[in-house]
Amino acid sequence: MAASSTTFSSLLPAPPALLSDNRSPPPCCSVRCSISSSPVLISFPRSSRLSFASPERRNLAVNSTVGEVSFREPSTSGSGDVESLKLKLLSVVSGLNRGLVASIDDLQRAEAAAKELETAGGPVDLTDDLDKLQGKWRLLYSSAFSSRSLGGSRPGLPTGRLIPVTLGQVFQRIDVFSKDFDNIAEVEIGAPWPFPPLEATATLAHKFELLGTCKIKITFQKTTVKTSGNLSQIPPFDIPRLPDSFRPPSNPGTGDFEVTYVDDNLRITRGDRGELRVFVIA
């Protein structure tokens, strides 16, 4: 009888194994409960319904348009604002022929756009970063050119009908190692028929030094003229400089300006007579 009882009990399925606390549970969902005085872990098979992947937390900005919703990552710095303000300034001053055709409203819009970019860019410090000025820069806009004078607020060739002068490209070439600072202007001066207009490039050579953190002082050296076009065979020649005693007070041969914004491809300066100038790298 005992033998048959043993045989019958051996046919019964074994109860589920109980895991003690000091054993690592299998990689499945477990529920802690208390059946007796000592807690046990009852193992359940993993179910696909119980598997949840925690989504990555992302900060998203929503742009909603008619019939369309798009998502973009928010900017983590102010670089996006600076780039948009640069585009705004460039769009304001483009088409003004370097400021020669700027109206009062154009001057005000350019001033406001420049101030926004200067504020976003923060103060300029060139004491340890002077090489930001290195290179050849093309003048895109000058508020002083609205005076219809190629000298800006200083004496210069007029752009009226009496002397038909057409201003071409204007550059600043800066060498931070030799401290050379050249203003280069391409001009075309009309001549009576049947003579062709005179095309020339004038280079006003200066030396510069840094004053403080962002002020540049330039000292005039000489003016060199190189003809082009039909007269390109003429070698470059220097225009004699007036002695200091004969130079008018408005043209002392020195000047200064502040660099109020600069990066790899755009520079804003403000002159000692209030000129706002915008340059792009050439």
Task: Please describe the topology of this protein.
Blueprint: H1 2-10, E1 30-33, E2 40-43, E3 61-65, E4 68-72, H2 79-93, H3 104-121, E5 135-142, E6 165-175, E7 180-189, E8 198-211, E9 215-228, E10 237-239, E11 254-262, E12 266-271, E13 276-281
Protein name: Plastid lipid-associated protein/fibrillin conserved domain-containing protein
Domain Plastid lipid-associated protein/fibrillin conserved: 84-279
Family: Belongs to the PAP/fibrillin family.
Descriptive report:
This protein is an alpha+beta fold and about 280 residues long. The protein has one domain (about 80-280): Lipocalin (Beta Barrel). The chain has helices spanning about 1-10, 80-95, 105-120; strands at about 30-35, 40-45, 60-65, 70, 135-140, 165-175, 180-190, 200-210, 215-230, 235-240, 255-260, 265-270, 275-280. The strands form three sheets. The chain has an eight-stranded antiparallel beta barrel. It has a two-stranded antiparallel sheet with strand order 1-2. It has a two-stranded antiparallel ribbon with strand order 3-4. A hairpin with a 3-residue loop joins strand 11 and strand 12 (about 265-270). Helix 2 (about 80-95) packs antiparallel against helix 3. The N and C termini lie far apart (about 110 Å). Belongs to the PAP/fibrillin family. It is found in: Plastid, Chloroplast. This is Plastid lipid-associated protein/fibrillin conserved domain-containing protein.
